[in-house]
Amino acid sequence: MHEMGIALEIYRTCREAVRAHGEGRLQRVRIAVGELAAIEPDLLLFGWQAVVVDSPDEGAELEIEWCRADQRCPSCGEAKDRSEGTWLRICPDCAMPLEVRGGDELDVLEITYETDDETADAASPS
Amino acid sequence: MKHVVTIRRKALAASEEHAAKLRGQFSESGTLVLNLISSPGSGKTTLLEATVRRLADQHRLAVIEGDVATERDADRIRALGVAAHQVLTGGACHLDARQIETALDTAELLPADILFIENVGNLICPTTYDLGEDFKVAVLSVTEGDDKPFKYPAIFSRAAVTIISKSDLLPHVPFDLEAVREHVASLNPSGTLFVLSSTTGDGIDGWCDFLLDSLAAKRTP
User: 10 Å Cβ neighbour count for B105?
Assistant: First the structure.
């Protein structure tokens, strides 16, 4: 199970991002995971909980956006009968190699974090 | 106060930066780098022994071995007079680029013509991690069964080369070689497949020729 290591990498990326904007506590992280990324979402969520527990970001939520792959046959168009998660790269009708687009996403999209003091914003004239 | 920040950064970006640095280093030293991935016991180390015996006279080779524990694999390679470094993951199921960097800092492996990285025996996790290699090599032994490409599609679709090992055992086990050829081709239409036995030496020549051709291609400006 490599989801634990990936959860840790995601956490590091988010921590760095929070620090780059000042200090704060992570509340929510939205990520994209492709169906061909070889990532099991439940295990990733489990790994995430283990990573944030007892950290300053305890309770931060991980939200997974599931991304499907688009496989097209260059001669007959999309392989419409493909079932989710299939890795077959040959068109079932004309035996041509399929063009595969997407489905391998593993991206941090957005973070939400909270800061205690509002002095920075309060100080700036409105 | 609540802040929302859009990041759009690859989750493994930090790890991939290390892999890109390694790729640059290997390109500079003109080293062909292979990342061997398979289940435990498929014969990766035995394949490396057979390969090293064939190529070490004329070429400078180096090996990085990844295992949870023991120096056994690196010892087997060193016994053949080839530089080898053992990475002990202590439980982790794959190698990542940082460990390769540390290995290169610790042991004198470069410059080399070909660097073989034998990943931790596992068909799943190592697939996700780029080690700066030229290509991944999936090894499947005939004793594991012919259903593996469809059961573990990620590695077989991402590996530029698939090796069917222990071919000398084909008469003794139910393994439909032609079906496997077809399955691998349907997962990876542009991949290359070798059938070989490291014990008898059958098919090793074709594999070694492929390595030398790939090395020559990498060094052609």
Answer: 8
Q: Does the structure show a pLDDT above 70 at A110?
A: yes
What does R_g of chain B's alpha carbons equal in angstroms? 18
Residue A123 binned pLDDT confidence (cut-offs 50, 70, 90): very low
Chain B, 34-93: which have a CB under 8 Å from a chain A CB?
92-93
Establish if A9 touches chain B: CB-CB under 8 angstroms.
Answer: yes
Q: pLDDT band at B84, cuts 50/70/90?
A: very high
Look up residue A117 and give its DSSP letter.
Answer: -
Comparison of pLDDT for B14 and B21, the residue scoring more? B21
Task: Give the tokens for residue B198.
Answer: 């490291």
pLDDT at B158: 95
Instruction: Collapse the DSSP code of A33 into the 3-class scheme (helix H, G, I; strand E, B; otherwise coil) and give the result.
Output: strand
Give the chain A residue whose CA is nearest to the CA of B94.
A2
Q: Tell me what the mean pLDDT of segment B26-33 comes to.
A: 97
Rounded distance, CA B64 to CA B74, Å? 8
- Mean residue pLDDT of chain A comes to 86
**B53-61: long-range pairs with CB below 8 Å, 24+:** B53/B80, B54/B204, B54/B205, B54/B208, B55/B114, B55/B208, B55/B211, B55/B212, B56/B80, B56/B81, B56/B82, B59/B113, B59/B114, B59/B212, B59/B215, B60/B111, B60/B112, B60/B113, B61/B112, B61/B113, B61/B114, B61/B115, B61/B116
Percent share of chain A, pLDDT over 90:
54
Cβ–Cβ gap A9/B8 under 8 Å: no
User: What pLDDT is stored for residue A122 in this prediction?
Assistant: 43
* Closest in A2, A13, A38 to B9, CB measured: A13
> Nearest CA of chain B to the CA of A82: how many Å?
13
